[in-house]
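Task: sequence design from structure.
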């Protein structure tokens, strides 16, 4: 990914039809101040969609070497940038559909350049972007999701970890996806540790204590061994 391309993880999944391999949802929201102190205005994507629709890619984890398929629909609605995409019959495309079903992936993200913006009261209002891609992501910093406190955040992390571990245990994934999920587990554990370190409400010490942080590679190796038995 080009380091000059901005990334925002603000989108959610609406529906996944495994039989037709069509995914729908939102790549971005409108009107909310995100963690980067930005607001994307409705209309910011209009020019990109009209001028370069066929050059906007549906990717896995912002990886240009892993296109998932083609967008069939990209349009601005009141709630955000709506999409429908058909997932190609590739190994990682098949893995993606499985991870959607398992609830491991339910977030989306965009890669773009800001073309027009203005500052108001310290907030950058993004009025036009050049959109390069929309991605399905394992973990997104979803600015539309309010922080509901330490216990809620830990519960969310724990739930995501459980879903990833269950997906690994099912064993129907490629080695590339195993590696991706290993990285995601490490991210989740680091996030849990930071939450515990920076709050006074440390009521879940077994999650946030460094000595108790699980080693994802060990977990994955154990699952792989169990699948062979």
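Answer:
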């Amino acid at each position: 990914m080009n380091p000059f391309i901005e990334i925002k993880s603000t989108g959610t999944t609406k529906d996944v039809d495994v039989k037709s391999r069509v995914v729908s949802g939102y790549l971005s929201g409108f009107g909310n101040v995100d963690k980067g102190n930005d607001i994307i205005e409705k209309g910011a994507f209009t020019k990109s969609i009209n001028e370069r629709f066929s050059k906007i890619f549906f990717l896995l984890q912002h990886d240009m070497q892993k296109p998932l398929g083609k967008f069939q629909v990209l349009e601005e609605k009141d709630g955000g940038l709506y999409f429908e995409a058909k997932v190609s019959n590739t190994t990682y495309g098949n893995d993606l559909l499985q991870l959607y079903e398992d609830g491991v992936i339910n977030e989306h993200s965009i890669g773009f350049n800001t073309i027009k913006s203005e500052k108001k009261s310290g907030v950058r209002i993004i009025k036009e972007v050049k959109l390069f891609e929309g991605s399905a992501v394992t973990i997104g910093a979803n600015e539309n999701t309010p922080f509901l406190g330490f216990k809620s955040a830990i519960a969310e992390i724990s739930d995501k970890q459980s879903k990833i571990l269950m997906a690994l245990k099912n064993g129907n994934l490629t080695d590339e996806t195993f590696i991706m999920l290993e990285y995601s587990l490490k991210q989740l554990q680091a996030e849990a540790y930071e939450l515990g370190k920076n709050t006074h409400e440390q009521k879940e010490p077994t999650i946030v204590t460094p000595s108790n942080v699980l080693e994802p590679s060990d977990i994955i190796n154990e699952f792989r061994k169990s699948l062979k038995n």
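The helical segments are 46-52, 91-102, 150-170, 175-197, 205-208, 216-228.
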